[in-house]
Amino acid sequence: MLTAVFWKKAWVWLKNYWYFPVIAILALALFLSGKGRNNKLFDLMEGQREKYKQEIETINKANAEKDKKKAEAIKANKEKIREIEEQFDIKVDQLERHKEIELEETIKKYENNPDELARKIAEILEANLVER
Prior knowledge:
Strand content: under 5%
Helix content: over 70%
Distance between the termini: 109 Å
Number of helices: 4
Radius of gyration: 42 Å
Mean pLDDT: 78
Largest sheet: none
Oligomer: single chain
Number of strands: 0
């Protein structure tokens, strides 16, 4: 019974950590076949590590470039919004000045007719005229 439990535990360990025995067998085989091949295994592992570093560096560069473009786009959008706000303020000022001139002309034109003057001023100001 003890051996059955041992083999079950060994099988579970082997399923989860299969790479340890594989590496041990490869290392033993390379060691027995000669020292030159043993260095090849370490060279292969070193090559994989370098490849990993290069891929991480590439990912970091791509992410930095994406962040830079995002920051530039945000800056450009803020600048455009500021320009639009400035243009809008200028146009509002011009519109108010236009209404002011129109009010002055209307007051001069209808100074003798207060009811018509009130109606015209309400139209210019886009307000509702309240009748008494």
